[in-house]
Specification:
This protein is of the alpha+beta class and 931 residues long. Helix content is 50%, strand content 16%. Helix 4 packs across helix 6, helix 5 packs antiparallel against helix 10 and helix 9 runs antiparallel to helix 10.
Length: 931
């Protein structure tokens, strides 16, 4: 503080950084200031290079074992078969490992870049500053030393600075100091620190340090950013992967033992059990390589990759659809949402507010936009007009500022803006009214009090005057007088109160937001409480009705949510009649639905709540704690998956408690955004419905991939095991199995996990919290396809030469190539089958997913190259066109098998229980025709 005084206080500091405290930074100085004082950016850890991801992918234990096998295979092969024939097997394995590592590294590297971009977007806060005499919004990254920043409740302090002026400013410094108690910032203690949050009040501050020179920047140096936690689905799938891996390990050991024992028995039969050559060692090594490769195929490392790919793809798409996903898990959780508790203002409505009606001195005046100032002034009595203008311009958190073209701009919340614009329409002047009296104390609006109060000193010096405005019922309760046509206060009778309540209800039934304006003259006393704003004995000035139209498309979005089994509840601070009128217009409030007020809900006992909540569709005049209570009950007592919207600082507990917290990007405070999982950038309910749609797509896409992968796993394991037991050799070599693993894991994940959502997703009930991930429908498809593929491949293995009329010295090589080719084409067509688990038409919308087509084409193209040109490495021989056609037709037959399987009814047991949803809707039937 002494140091600040030595510099001449805030004014002296402003001179030192050559800036005007009224006009702010001049545009011409911007680049020079940034050069001298630095940019408002924090030093980030250098991004991990692509080679780091390659290095990490090479650390996979099974791949390391295979590399060792490949090295030994090359050494032994060259010793027995000579150069270069002896190294083909080993080099084939090395090439496959290289391909797997490369694709994994590229995929992970791209994800890391995408998450970095999202992280940057998350931290990009919009700040209000005064520059060149004009108030404007800029990105936090463009902030510089000398900027005049405007702060209000819920804002994050964007840089270090000192207070210029403000009221009731209370700062939460817990992010820096760890202390939960808010700190009051005054002229005696004027320092504001970057990264802290405004708990209450509003202020102007002068920026004194940015970026790494702030306290937060210095702290950031010592911290390392934590990565994304695993999502619930990833955790669940890691468990599935472990079980499959263990089964694979058992099969691999069994296959190795069977092959080795058979080999030893054959040697014993020929009396060669004591004669061992290098080629025998190579045979055993080959058995070991096959066993290790079976483990590689069995371990579904593609599962976590599929989840990450699917979520990252959804996040990217949602970003372009105006939804910023802050936590990966929110994407998948939103697919299971059964209940959405939404705000009204700005989410269901446009947030473009205008004063539509005003009631004062016993008469209602409709405000037409084309009415001239004189007509409006003549309709309101002179004494009342002056008091009304004082109340509008004194008691406000908004400001009238000159825009770049010299035009008046109102900056503030939509409600404040509407009231100030009405004041200007009445011929008022913001600056003149503000200069009339000095502001002594401000109690800004918050969701708990539902009102804003201000205390000013009157020009005569003998009195103070308090103004308050807010929720009509609350202000009306605190009024004991009413202003008459002469501008004098007279007692307010019970009869008048009833009439005013009828006016308020009348406005509300027209879907208008209602506010009351009131004042009270206060005698100046010498005690310490002279600046305390009293709560009662106010004089009512007017009732204002503000129009806020419903957003286009909201009714359809609500209808889609209800059809998808998602209950939509409106939770608002507005008057109950306004809430009911808007809820009916949006399709939220139905005939059997219940609308109650927050105070009523608060006083209910647990049994009453249990009876009320299922029918509850609208909660009006609710406080943030009512919202929190509703969310807690829905989650704990009704086991719902709840999504909640919030914009204010006080919404943070409800956002945190909900399964998915949705903060508003435009109206939302930084505190709300920080506690949310998803930020709705355009504050639109339709965007929320879109997040739910994508959430369902993520879940279904991963189910499709799991169905596809498990089929390949079962067939690959069983085929090699059966063949080893019966014939003593494995038809699929290590290199071939690695290629299948590649199709199955990485390429399969790319193809199936990135399918865009279709409309059918919002015509089925939500996925329950405890529903098994692998459903009976999936098991039906997996087992059916596995049986078909195994029968075909086993028949080819043991009767192939006869059926395909193969003879000659290369008959076995040709047959093994046909088995490999048929196996791959079975997977290609099964991947197409997996696009829809229930519907027979799996080709619908196939061209909408360019990635799917690309994966299919590249898989087939590379298969042709492997068979025709890479025989030395992959142990294949070129095939005739008839054998190619046979392989493709056998693979394509799996489409017919899938169609037959989908006609088989599956008892869905708990999944399809027709228990009524708590909103009275029955879950929609789902099946081949209804999906």
């Amino acid at each position: 503080m002494k140091s600040l005084e030595n510099h001449g206080g805030v004014e002296g500091l402003a001179k030192k950084v050559t800036v005007s405290l009224t006009d702010g930074v001049v545009p011409a100085d911007v680049s020079l200031r940034q050069k001298i004082y630095g940019y408002n950016r924090f030093a980030e850890k250098p991004a991990r290079s692509f080679w780091m991801f390659v290095w990490e992918a090479l650390h996979d234990l099974t791949l390391i074992i295979l590399m060792v096998c490949a090295a030994v295979s090359i050494g032994v092969g060259i010793a027995t078969e000579g150069w270069p024939a002896g190294m083909y097997d080993g080099i084939g394995i090395v090439l496959c490992i290289f391909l797997v590592v490369l694709v994994t590294a590229v995929s992970d590297y791209k994800q890391s870049l995408q998450f970095k971009d999202l992280d940057k977007e998350k931290k990009n806060i919009i700040v209000q500053v005064t520059r060149d005499g004009c108030r404007q919004k800029i990105s936090i990254y463009d902030l510089m030393v000398g900027d005049i920043v405007h702060l209000s409740i819920g804002d994050q302090v964007p840089a270090d600075g000192v207070l210029i002026s403000g009221y009731s400013l209370s700062i939460d410094e817990s992010s820096l100091s760890g202390e939960s108690e808010p700190v009051n910032v005054t002229q005696r203690k004027p320092f504001l620190l970057s990264g802290t949050k405004v708990r209450d009040g509003y202020a102007k501050m002068l920026v004194t340090a940015v970026g790494m020179r702030t306290e937060w920047g210095r702290l950031m140096v010592t911290l390392s950013e934590g990565g994304e936690d695993e999502t619930p689905l990833q955790v669940k799938l890691n468990g599935v992967a472990t079980v499959i891996g263990q089964i694979g390990l058992a099969f691999a050991v069994l296959t190795f033992l069977v092959l080795t024992i058979r080999f030893l028995l054959v040697k014993a039969q020929h009396g060669e059990i004591t004669n061992w050559s290098v080629s025998d060692a190579l045979t055993l090594l080959n058995f070991f390589a096959i066993a290790v490769t079976i483990i590689v195929v069995a371990v579904p490392e593609g599962l976590p990759l599929a989840v990450t790919l699917s979520l990252a793809f959804a996040m990217k798409k949602l970003m372009s659809d105006k939804a910023l996903v802050r936590h990966l898990s929110a994407c998948e959780t939103m697919g299971s949402a059964t209940s959405i508790c939404t705000d009204k203002t700005g989410t269901l409505t446009t947030n473009h507010m205008v004063v539509h009606k005003i009631w004062t001195c016993g008469r209602t005046i409709k405000i037409e936009g084309n009415k001239s100032e004189d007509v409006l002034q003549s309709s309101i009595a002179g004494g009342v007009l002056n008091m009304l203008l004082q109340s509008i311009f004194q008691n406000t958190g908004a400001e009238v500022v000159k825009g770049k073209g010299g035009k008046n701009n109102v900056i503030g919340s939509p409600t404040e803006t509407a009231i100030l614009e009405f004041g200007l329409l009445l011929g008022g002047d913001f600056k003149i009214h503000r200069k009339e009296s000095e502001i002594l104390k401000v109690e800004p609006f918050n969701s708990d009090k539902k009102k804003m109060s201000i205390l000013v000193s009157l020009p005569n010096g003998g009195e103070h005057r308090a103004f308050c405005k807010g929720a009509s019922e609350i202000i009306l309760k605190s009024c004991s007088k009413i202003i008459n046509a002469d501008g004098k206060a007279e007692p307010l009778s019970e009869e008048q109160k009833r009439c005013i309540t009828d006016v308020i209800n009348g406005f509300a039934c027209e879907a208008l937001r209602t506010l009351c304006l009131a004042f009270k003259d206060v005698k100046v006393t010498s005690n310490e409480d002279s600046n305390r704003i009293t709560e009662d004995n106010y004089t009512l000035i007017a009732v204002i009705g503000i129009k806020d139209p419903v957003r286009p498309g909201v009714r359809e979005a609500v209808k889609t949510c209800l059809a998808a089994g998602i209950t939509v509840r409106m939770v608002t601070g507005d008057n109950i009649n306004t809430a009911k009128a808007i809820a009916r217009e949006c399709g939220i409030l139905t005939d059997g639905g219940l609308a109650i007020e927050g105070p009523t809900f608060r006083e209910m006992n647990p049994q009453q709540m249990e009876e009320t909540i299922p029918k509850l569709q609208v909660m009006a005049r609710s406080s943030p704690m009512d919202k929190h209570k509703l969310v807690t009950h829905l989650r704990k007592e009704f086991s719902e998956v709840v999504a909640v919207t919030g914009d204010g600082t006080n919404d943070a507990p409800a956002l945190h408690e909900a399964d998915i917290g949705l903060a508003m990007g435009i109206a939302g405070t930084e505190v709300a955004k920080e506690n949310a999982d998803v930020i709705i950038m355009d504050d639109n309910f339709t965007t929320i419905q879109n997040v739910a749609r994508w959430g369902r797509a993520v879940y279904i896409n991963i189910q499709k991939f799991v169905q596809f992968q498990l089929t390949v796993n079962i067939v690959a394991l069983m085929l090699n095991f059966i063949s080893a037991c019966i014939s003593g050799s494995a038809p699929l070599t290590a290199v071939q199995l690695l290629w299948v693993n590649m199709i199955m894991d990485t390429l399969g994940a790319l193809a199936l996990a990135t399918e865009p959502p279709h409309d059918g997703l919002m015509k089925r009930p939500p996925i329950g919290r405890d529903t098994a991930f692998i459903t009976r429908i999936m098991w039906r498809n997996i087992i059916g396809q596995s049986i078909y593929q195994l029968i075909v491949l086993v028949v080819l293995q043991f009767q192939g030469k006869r059926l395909l009329k193969l003879s000659g010295s290369d008959a076995t090589a040709v047959l093994n190539t046909v088995i490999f080719n048929t196996f791959v084409f079975c997977q290609v067509f099964n991947e197409i089958n997996s696009r829809d688990m229930e519907k027979i038409n799996v080709l619908r919308g196939i061209f909408d997913s360019w990635l799917f087509i690309m994966v299919m084409v590249s898989t087939v193209a590379f298969q042709c190259i492997i068979v025709e040109f890479l025989g030395a490495f992959a142990s294949t021989v070129p095939l005739s066109w008839e054998l190619w056609l046979a392989s493709i037709l056998v693979g394509a037959a799996s489409l017919i098998v899938a169609a037959i399987l989908k006609c088989m009814p599956v008892d869905k047991c708990k999944e399809a229980a027709t228990a009524k949803h708590h909103d009275g809707y029955e879950p929609l039937p789902s099946g081949p025709d209804m999906a």
